[in-house]
Every structure is written in structure tokens, then in C-alpha cells.
Design goal:
Strand 20, helix 14 and strand 21 form a beta-alpha-beta unit. The chain is built from 15 helices and 24 strands. The strands form 7 sheets. A 7-stranded mixed beta sheet has the order 14-17-18-13-12-20-21, sandwiched between helices. It has a 6-stranded mixed beta sheet with strand order 9-8-7-10-11-23, sandwiched between helices. The chain starts with a strand and ends with a strand. It folds into 2 domains: 268 residues, Aldehyde Dehydrogenase, Chain A, domain 1 (3-Layer(aba) Sandwich); 188 residues, 3-Layer(aba) Sandwich (Aldehyde Dehydrogenase, Chain A, domain 2), CATH 3.40.309. The chain is an alpha/beta fold. The radius of gyration is 23 Å and the shape is globular. The structure holds succinic acid. Succinic acid binds next to loops.
Length: 475
């Protein structure tokens, strides 16, 4: 596969551009290297996108839709190859990587269907003096900045609706996992996507790359998935050109287990919500709240389930949790664990990094965690489950909402009415009620508060990549 930049349908790499080493986080070894995109390359990619976009917007929706469907088919056919790339550059177990490709591909199929159903409306003004026609043209050129935790799915969740709506895109994949992105670019070329509509420009100079892309006169929108901290910086920069934005930012998901819950089901859901994709998801359960009557039983049962996690190289079929992405991630996890222990938490499992090679952290459970500990406030992004006991629903709702982040939450109870009432009061964009898995291309993914702006997936997802135009007329 090519490791060059993809700009306007051509591969670009020059000896003076330098290279980005792509590392295997399970071993620390270099897998390969890819071309480095400069600010000039970001500008060239925006030029190419601007040139290709009008023709694509004028292409019948059915034709756009069929290319997206062919992309779905192609990802499914190349699932093993793509999953192996993900496991190599990200480290997640191969089974999780296969699940990611199925998820990633589905965004193409779902949005192939949405592409032919972008609706507008016609109404009569209350005064009767005109008709009000509303329709949804594409935004134009969209810049996408994607994260390393889902090297395929966080691209396709943005790319498929953007293309379906008639836009052209410039993607900055993460420097940790650029290979999957570049291979998806090749597959899109093979299924007949016209050149220039998808430009893929990895870089190690994110700030100047982003400045060039934002300042390009054709750029009209930025879609970002990543931390709240970086999202704030990008939002400020987008304000300079009043760009439309979709921001999928950090999470701090509460996982609430009431006394009447089925504890086995709650632990099964907890393991999914915590450990899916090596515990490196924004929707990961970050704080477990167990009601006093079952807190001990839940903690013991969660501890034994976490003890069953096997960490190691994602290519080993017995491994259920791969390495963390880099040494910095291990430092953050360990700082949060130590901080909780200093505030009186009890470690019932793990509690330390694992000696290298590779970046591994022991599956860890912390009981009796003080709610004011940094671990209950910051995103862990690692295999650590802090448990906090609570007495009543009001108290736990207050604690769950005491965060500036509001991406996901989870509630376990056998009382459906109580469960729904609690879900409704959680200040989060997505809630799993007696479920540990939320994500679905047909559901609107996104957060409240500082977890982001806009939604991806569902019907809402494609409209994020559209403008709204109103035409006043009479006939
Ligand atoms: C994320 O971690 O940002 C995405 C998680 C998901 O789509 O399930």
C-alpha cells in the first residue's frame, strides 16, 4: 500500500518532506513510515477538494449513494486486511479490529441510504403572501481531524455522510494510525470515487497544518473527534472564519447500578462499557456508582471479571486488551490511580503499569473511591474501573451530573420507569439503559456540555454536512 499523501487523486511524497514513523504500541518497534504533510500540502488538498466538489454536488444522489454502497462492500471484502492494519498500528485485539471494520463499513451503507433521502420542505407563510421552500445543499469543503482510537470508524462516520451530502473532504488522520486511513483512501479510489473528493494528508505539524486548512477560502466546515482540550483550541481557530463545526469531544461516563439490578447483567454490561476496544473509547464507563446494598457484591464480581482480562499483543487470539497507545497514556492512567489511592481508595485488582516492551497497564479495580478524586473527574482512557458507593437516586444523579463533560452514561435497574426517569435527568448525549454498548450507525452519536457539538450517525448525521437554504417565492 502507498504511504504517500493522497491529494487530488495523486500520490505525493518528496525526499525533503521527512517521514512519520508509525509504531507498533505492543512492541515499540517501527512498522513503517509515512509522508509528512506540510501546510502547503494542506492548502493543495483544499484546492483539490474545492475543484472536485461542485461536480460531485451536481452528481445525482443515486449515483453518490451507489458509490457509498460500493465502499461498504469493499470494506467488508477487505475486513481482514484492514483489521490487521488496525491491530498493528493501534494495538487493539484482532477481534475488536474486525468489529471496528464492520462498524466503519456500516457508516457507508447507512449513509448510502440517507443520501437519497435528504429532505426539504415547502410551506405557505402564515400571512399567505409567499411560499417557503427549504432545501439542503452541501456545505462545500470539509476538513476532518480524526483520532487514533478508531483508525477506521471515526473516519467513515464523518466521511460517508459528508460525501453522501455532496461535499469534498480533506482528512488529517492521526500520526499514530495513518495507515488504515491511507488504505481506506485507496479502496475509495478503487470503487470509483472521483479524484479530489477525498484527500488524506497525515502530518506531524498539526498546528500549522490546521491553520492552513482553516484559512483556505474554500473550507466551510471542520469536523473533529478528540479531546475537549484540543477541541476548544480548534473551535477558537474556526471562529476566525466562522466555520461550521461538529465536535465529538471527551467523555466521563457514569455507570450507575441500583440495588435492584441484575448484578450479573450489570457486570457483563460494565465490562463492555469499560473494556471495549482496550478501554480507549470516549464512551467508556469512567466512574462506576453502585448503590450501597449491592456495592460490595458488584465490586467483587467486577473484580473477578476484570481479572479475566488478558493483556498482550492484539494478534494473540487469547488477548482481550491490547497496549495503550503510548507511554504518555500509561503515565496519565497511573497518575489517576495513584491519586485515587492517596484519597483512600482500595485497590482490589492491579494498580500498576506493566514493564515493557510495549505500553501496558494492569486491569485495575478501585473500591471506595472518593468522588472528588481526579479519577472521577478526568477521562481515564485505560483499563481502570473506579467504584463509588451511593445511597439514593437524587445523590447519584447529582454526582453523575457534576462534570463539565456529558457524552455517555449507563443505568442498570430492573425498574424500567425508574431507569427511564434517571436516564432523562442525566446530562449526557447518550445513555445505555441495562446495556453496556451504545454505538450504532443508525443512532445519533454525540454529547452535551463540553463533550461536543452536533451529532454523527442516524439521520441527523448527514444534515450536519448540509446548509439550510430558504427560498421565498409565489406562483
Ligand atoms: C469514540 O470513542 O470516540 C467513539 C466510540 C464509539 O463510536 O463507539
Amino acid at each position: 500500500m502507498s504511504t504517500a499523501l493522497l491529494i487530488g487523486g495523486s500520490r505525493r511524497e518528496g525526499s525533503d518532506r521527512g517521514r512519520i514513523d508509525v509504531l507498533d504500541p505492543a512492541t515499540g518497534e517501527t512498522i513503517t513510515d509515512v509522508a509528512v504533510g506540510t501546510p502547503a500540502d494542506a492548502t493543495a488538498a483544499c484546492d483539490a477538494a474545492a475543484a472536485a466538489q461542485p461536480g460531485w454536488a451536481a452528481t445525482p444522489p443515486r449515483v453518490r449513494s451507489e458509490i457509498l454502497r460500493a465502499a461498504w462492500q469493499s470494506l467488508v471484502e477487505h475486513a481482514t486486511e484492514l483489521a490487521e492494519l488496525i491491530t498493528r498500528e493501534h494495538g487493539k485485539p484482532l477481534a475488536d479490529a474486525m468489529a471496528e471494520i464492520a462498524y466503519a463499513a456500516e457508516f457507508f451503507r447507512w449513509n448510502a441510504e440517507e443520501t437519497v433521502r435528504i429532505r426539504g420542505s415547502i410551506g405557505t407563510a402564515p400571512s399567505g403572501d409567499k411560499k417557503i421552500i427549504v432545501h439542503h445543499p452541501p456545505v462545500g469543503v470539509v476538513v476532518m481531524v480524526t483520532p487514533w482510537n478508531f483508525p477506521a470508524a471515526m473516519i467513515t462516520r464523518k466521511l460517508a455522510p459528508a460525501l453522501g451530502a455532496g461535499n469534498a473532504v480533506v482528512i488529517k488522520p492521526p500520526k499514530e494510525t495513518p495507515l488504515t486511513a491511507l488504505r481506506i483512501g485507496e479502496l475509495l479510489e478503487e470503487v470509483g470515487l472521483p479524484p479530489g473528493l477525498v484527500n488524506i494528508v497525515p502530518t506531524s505539524n498539526s498546528g500549522s497544518w490546521f491553520d492552513a486548512a482553516v484559512d483556505h477560502p474554500a473550507t466551510r466546515m471542520v469536523s473533529f473527534t478528540g479531546s475537549t482540550e484540543v477541541g476548544r483550541v480548534l473551535l477558537r481557530r474556526c471562529a476566525d472564519r466562522v466555520l461550521k463545526t461538529v465536535m465529538e469531544l471527551g467523555g466521563n461516563a457514569p455507570f450507575i447500578v441500583f440495588d435492584d439490578a441484575d448484578v450479573d447483567a450489570a457486570v457483563e454490561g460494565a465490562m463492555i462499557a469499560k473494556m471495549r476496544h482496550s478501554a480507549e473509547t470516549c464512551t467508556a464507563a469512567n466512574r462506576f456508582y453502585a448503590q450501597s446494598g449491592i456495592a460490595a457484591e458488584f465490586t467483587a464480581s467486577l473484580t473477578s471479571a476484570m481479572a479475566g482480562i488478558k493483556i498482550g499483543n492484539g494478534f494473540d487470539p487469547d488477548v482481550t486488551c491490547g497496549p495503550m497507545i503510548n507511554a504518555g497514556a500509561i503515565e496519565t492512567i497511573d497518575r489517576l490511580v495513584k491519586g485515587a489511592l492517596e484519597r483512600g481508595a482500595r485497590c482490589t485488582l492491579g494498580g500498576s503499569p506493566v514493564e515493557g516492551p510495549g505500553c501496558f497497564y494492569q486491569p485495575t479495580v478501585l473500591a471506595d473511591v472518593d468522588h472528588s478524586s481526579p479519577i472521577a473527574q478526568e477521562e481515564i482512557f485505560g483499563p481502570v474501573a473506579p467504584v463509588i458507593a451511593f445511597d439514593d437516586a437524587e445523590a447519584v444523579i447529582t454526582q453523575a451530573n457534576a462534570s463539565e463533560l456529558g457524552l455517555a452514561g449507563y443505568v442498570y435497574t430492573r425498574d424500567l420507569a425508574r431507569g427511564l426517569a434517571v436516564c432523562e435527568r442525566l446530562q449526557v448525549g447518550m445513555v445505555g439503559l441495562n446495556r453496556g454498548a451504545l454505538s450504532d450507525p443508525a443512532a445519533p452519536f454525540g454529547g452535551m456540555k463540553q463533550s461536543g457539538l452536533g451529532r454523527e450517525g442516524a439521520s441527523e448525521g448527514i444534515y450536519e454536512f448540509c446548509e439550510t437554504q430558504y427560498i421565498a417565492t409565489n406562483w
